[in-house]
């Protein structure tokens, strides 16, 4: 069955992607989302997925460890790169990234560096076989990497000795790796309950093969709610135009993951307007900001970020969530038990008169026009 699934996956992926190294310069330049031309070596190389972009790094210096430095070589993933902050508050919480089809661990290091600079351990891993590893194999790699990070906290000559929180992990990935982050949540593994507090799926694709449930689908592949029956909070970032780029993945993209995840599970769908499958390949719009809010909320258990997560980004074509905040009535600015336009007028009056109301919806220490914009976003999209 695994061989059959691998063959099916290969057929689907080969229909969607050409291997970049097979392309000449002109062909390479026609696929900027997936390939880039290396002038020095005169070869077309994989872009892969994840991170980078013009990010404003956080307050912490960071470094990284690779297998030659002594970190564990996990059997279910390849080429682990473990980024960690320097002198951030202990113990460190962690996020694990796995890449899209055809990419290795280095394609995720942009994201890893970014989150390490904000005080988190961020490990980037690759699949053992970049072309043929299935979603489940990549999901097993994410779980295996959690073990590596935990053991690194126990290695006496490691800079992370006694510095790792074994109970606070987010699993994440781009494209096929994003789908793997969702598959990981439904596997039978002790880390699901003991260590994982949530997931982030960036431009996810997902495949489940079940000839009983998916009998009406070609290759016995489909996505139905029973495949995603979990309770782990999940953030899904998708592009508005992904289906146009990947028509063979109809029903198997991030928007479909959101709709098939239980309503009782805390979930967010952030669909970026006018972008496709590369929408979260690197920093686009406010993706990194929303991801950081999500990590602070889940990993640090900082509920101050809950209300911010309800606010739709300006570049979103859709922003859906089942998240509920205990402090939602902070938006009832005039204390009449309703959140509506009357609160808008109340806030405008507060800003104009300069009265000391204590309203600070965006946590910047001031009551000003930015709080008004924050509230209007909440009123239009978050309430």
Question: What would you say this structure looks like, in words?
Answer:
This protein is of the alpha/beta class and 383 residues long. The protein folds into two domains: 62-321, Alpha/Beta hydrolase fold, catalytic domain (Rossmann fold); 328-382, Type 1 dockerin domain, CATH 1.10.1330. Helices cover 30% and strands 19% of the residues. It has twelve helices and 13 strands. The chain has a nine-stranded mixed sheet, with helices on both faces. It has a two-stranded antiparallel ribbon with strand order 1-2. Helix 3 links the parallel strand 5 and strand 6. Helix 11 runs antiparallel to helix 12 (369-382). The N and C termini lie far apart (46 Å). The model is unreliable at 1-19 and 46-52 (pLDDT under 50).
CATH fold description of the largest domain: Rossmann fold
Question: Number of DSSP strands?
Answer: 13
Which runs of at least 5 residues are low in confidence (pLDDT < 50)?
Answer: 1-19, 46-52
Radius of gyration, rounded?
Answer: 22 Å
What would the average pLDDT be, to the nearest integer?
Answer: 85
Supply the number of structural domains: 2
Q: What is the H/E order? A: HHEEEEEHEHEHHEEEEHHEHHEHH
Q: Tally the helices.
A: 12
Task: Please give the structural blueprint.
Elements: H1 2-16, H2 25-29, E1 35-38, E2 43-46, E3 62-65, E4 78-85, E5 92-98, H3 109-116, E6 121-126, H4 135-152, E7 164-174, H5 176-184, H6 190-194, E8 196-202, E9 208-209, E10 221-222, E11 234-239, H7 242-245, H8 254-260, E12 267-272, H9 287-298, H10 306-309, E13 316-321, H11 341-353, H12 369-382
Parallel strand pairs: 5-6, 5-7, 7-8, 8-11, 11-12
Antiparallel strand pairs: 1-2, 3-4, 4-6, 9-10, 12-13
Helix pairs in contact: 4-5, 11-12
């Amino acid at each position: 069955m695994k061989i059959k699934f691998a063959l099916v996956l290969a057929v689907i992926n080969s229909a969607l992607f050409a291997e970049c190294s097979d392309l000449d310069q002109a062909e390479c330049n026609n696929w900027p989302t997936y390939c880039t031309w290396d002038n020095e070596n005169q070869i077309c190389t994989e872009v892969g997925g994840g991170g980078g972009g013009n990010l404003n790094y956080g307050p912490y210096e960071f470094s990284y460890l690779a297998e030659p430095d002594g970190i564990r070589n996990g059997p279910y993933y390849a080429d682990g790169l473990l980024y960690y902050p320097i002198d951030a508050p202990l113990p460190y919480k962690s996020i694990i990234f796995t890449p899209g089809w055809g990419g290795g661990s280095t394609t995720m290091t942009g994201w890893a560096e970014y989150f390490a600079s904000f005080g988190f351990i961020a490990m980037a891993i690759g699949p053992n076989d970049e072309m043929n590893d299935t979603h489940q194999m990549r999901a097993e790699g994410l779980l295996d990497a959690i073990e590596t990070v935990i053991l690194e906290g126990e290695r006496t000559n490691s800079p992370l000795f006694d510095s790792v929180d074994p109970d606070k992990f987010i699993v994440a990935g781009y494209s096929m790796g994003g789908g793997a982050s969702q598959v990981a949540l439904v596997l039978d593994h002790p880390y699901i309950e003991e260590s994982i507090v949530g997931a982030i799926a960036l431009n996810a694709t997902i495949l489940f093969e079940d000839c009983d449930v998916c009998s009406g689908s070609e290759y016995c592949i489909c996505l139905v709610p029973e495949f995603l029956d979990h309770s782990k909070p999940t953030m899904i970032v998708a592009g508005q135009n992904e289906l146009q780029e990947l028509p063979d993945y109809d029903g198997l993209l991030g928007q479909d993951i959101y709709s098939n995840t239980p309503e009782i599970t805390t979930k967010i769908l952030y669909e970026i307007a006018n972008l496709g499958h590369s929408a979260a390949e690197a920093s686009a719009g406010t993706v990194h900001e929303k991801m950081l809010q999500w990590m602070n909320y889940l990993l640090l258990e900082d509920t101050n970020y809950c209300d911010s997560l309800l606010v739709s980004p300006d570049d979103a074509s859709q922003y859906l969530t089942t998240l509920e905040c205990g402090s939602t009535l902070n938006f009832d600015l005039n204390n009449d038990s309703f959140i509506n336009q009357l609160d808008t007028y109340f806030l405008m009056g507060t800003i104009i008169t300069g009265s000391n109301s204590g309203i600070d919806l965006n946590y910047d220490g001031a009551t000003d026009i930015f709080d008004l914009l924050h509230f209007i976003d909440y009123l239009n999209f978050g309430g």
